[in-house]
Amino acid sequence: MDMEIESCEPIDMEESTPNPAHREPPSIRRLDEAVVNRIAAGEVIQRPVSAVKELIENSIDAGSTSISVLVKDGGLKLIQVSDDGHGIRYEDLPILCERHTTSKLSKFEDLLSIKSMGFRGEALASMTYVGHVTVTTITKGQLHGYRATYKDGVMENEPKACAAVKGTQIMIENLFYNMAARRKSLQNSADDYPKIVDLICRFAIHHTNVNFSCRKHGAARADVNSVATSSRLDAIRSVYGVSVAQNLLSIEASDDDPSNSVFEMDGFISNSNYAAKKITMVLFINDRLVECGALKRAIEIIYAATLPKASKPFIYMSIKLPPEHIDVNVHPTKREVSLLNQEVIIEKIQSVLESKLRNSNESRTFQEQKVPVRKMVRTDSQDPAGRLHAYLQVKPSSQLQGTSSLASVRSSIRQRRNPRETADLTSIQELTREIDSSCHSELLDIVGNCSYIGMADDVFALLQHNTHLYLANVVNLSKELMYQQVLRRFAHFSAIQLSDPAPLPDLIMLALKEQDLDSEGNENDDLKEKIAEMNTELIKQRAEMLEEYFGIYVDQNGNLSRLPIVLDQYTPDMDRVPELILCLGNDVNWDDEKICFQTIAAAIGNFYAFNPPLLPNPSGDGLQFYKKVPSTTSEDGNASGSADDSKEEEIEQELLSEAESAWSQREWSIQHVLFPSMRLFLKPPTSMATNGTFVKVASLEKLYKIFERC
Ligand code: ADP
Ligand code: MG
């Protein structure tokens, strides 16, 4: 087919007498099929390591017990994979490398159940479009084997008889010989050999019944040499070394409830003694090596929250699922997957990991990172923010005493999954679609890939993304994150249980009085009581909906007893409950379903946001707030002036330490809960690019240049 494309001059729009030749559009031609195939093949086989992965999977599928890999020039010159599997029949050799030829499925239904792995029968074909492929194979009971070479999907000549040992050897030479740009960029980048070694290590610890070896061409020794064993731990020891194997805990989780999730998981995770520079996550789903970013980040969150010093773990996990529950949604060779009921599965796995890590740590002295829930409830009556403790104690349970806060938050959670298909309400779908469609891709990249440096002040965090520094408003960001989470969890909330139900009228009164303090307004108490009564009535009327969709539980007597969990591992500031209730009464538009859901989600989002604590920040001007008021000026004889000999500079120690802990707790949560969760879940709306939520403060490149000049 003719590949030349006619050169075509730009059309001059001003020309008064148009030249008919110029009017003609450039002719559209079908691309040469080989070119199309090459482009497609380049997508399946992106780099040498992806070819190795396909070849090894084929060898495993062929029932091999021994697979050896030889690599020359990072795989660009040669990749050779030899196995002792069942081999390939002589009569199949001619079509072996045609597209969509496979021995692994035949019916359409088969395809449905393994479609998850994508690109069936495409790997070998793809390799022949981007490299020179030679196959040597022998099947059981044959005296000799055959060798054939392939190009562009076609066998080049009749298979030649040759001597062969059991199994198949596939050789790819000169990978990307016909893709100059790809070849060049791969030659420039660090070569793929370390990636190939890493890949084989991963296979070796999952397929423990197979011996794997990997060697660089010309090297005397193999870089991986695993020996088949019945013990996974032995396999990990032989591949990753004693230092990894001795610091592992075994884990297991499963669920078998079709309305919830169906899966089995087992694996090994590193303990608090394991220290590494980066996370190693080896994940097999239905025996296929895959990546699942959401699960990986969820595990990172658990480590950061539980073992901050060992927060780059080693994880090996094998998950078994009904095949139709897996969806491959990113690149076929990367095998990034998402799972049906992913959130439920991830949550289950998280909680198993968390309790395992905590238990393993019990005997050690363990630096508690989160303030226990019971400490979040204020008990000091002088505390200006402490008036709620009468209502808002989280139910004390035996686990709550002394042990970790995460565990105790969880123990106070009552699982209330609602199996009803409420999420197909169109208004919710519309709202979530709006989130997707207004997502700002650049900000998404920043949020997803930035590193958190620290808090610049009470509201702005300093972030680095590539060579740029940004200030990001954590209050705005967390409001948006929580809003989005409320919509995602719609009708599927877990709950925080209040130990003593709180009467709505009292909560609303508190909120109204708080507003008075802020605005110097002074509505009389009768009016406030009237408002409180009316709002209580209003909320009571909507109680069923609030419970079912939003996990806010108000009983018939108008007492609040449960709140939704919007973000795991995070308990909101209970002092802001009155504000939430007042918002529900005042700010929600109950007439239009969509606006109603939107405003409720926003109210819950505001409640959950990482607002600055109500106590002023003591590390700054706020400190003066904690100085004791001299007794002489205290005429009402309240407790703050009770010390007769108080000097002006004396500090309310208890209040101060409470404030310090609230602020450091918040900062810790911003780093270890908010940012990891934003990476996972936040879709920043376009408005954030211009409303001051993100402010670019510096380009490091420019700074370096300035430093250089100095
Ligand atoms: P798929 O693995 O999706 O079937 P491939 O293109 O990777 O597609 O392989 C095509 C077919 O070639 C396989 O279905 C299998 O029958 C055969 N094959 C490939 N590699 C081997 C091997 N190492 N041993 C035996 N058969 C193989
Ligand atoms: Mg294959």
Structure description:
Belongs to the DNA mismatch repair MutL/HexB family. It is found in: Nucleus. Its main location: nucleus. The protein is α+β, with helices and mostly antiparallel strands and 710 residues long. 38% of the residues lie in helices and 19% in strands. It folds into three domains: 33-224, Histidine kinase-like ATPase, C-terminal domain (Heat Shock Protein 90, 2-Layer Sandwich); 247-361, 2-Layer Sandwich (Ribosomal Protein S5, domain 2); 424-516 and 524-627 and 653-709, no CATH class. The strands form five sheets. Strands 1, 2, 3, 4, 5, 6, 7, 8 and 9 form a nine-stranded mixed β-sheet that branches. A five-stranded mixed β-sheet has the order 10-11-14-12-13, with helices on both faces. A hairpin with a 2-residue loop joins strand 4 and strand 5. The radius of gyration is 32 Å and the shape is elongated. The model is unreliable at 1-18, 108-119, 363-423 and 633-646 (pLDDT under 50). The structure holds adenosine-5'-diphosphate and magnesium ion (MG). Magnesium ion (MG) binds next to helix 3.
Q: What's the β-strand tally?
A: 24
In this entry the ligands are: adenosine-5'-diphosphate, magnesium ion
Q: What fraction strand?
A: 15-25%
Average residue pLDDT: 80
First-last Cα distance: 62 Å
Structure class: alpha+beta
Number of helices: 23
Fraction of helical residues: 25-40%
**Oligomerization status of the protein chains:** single chain
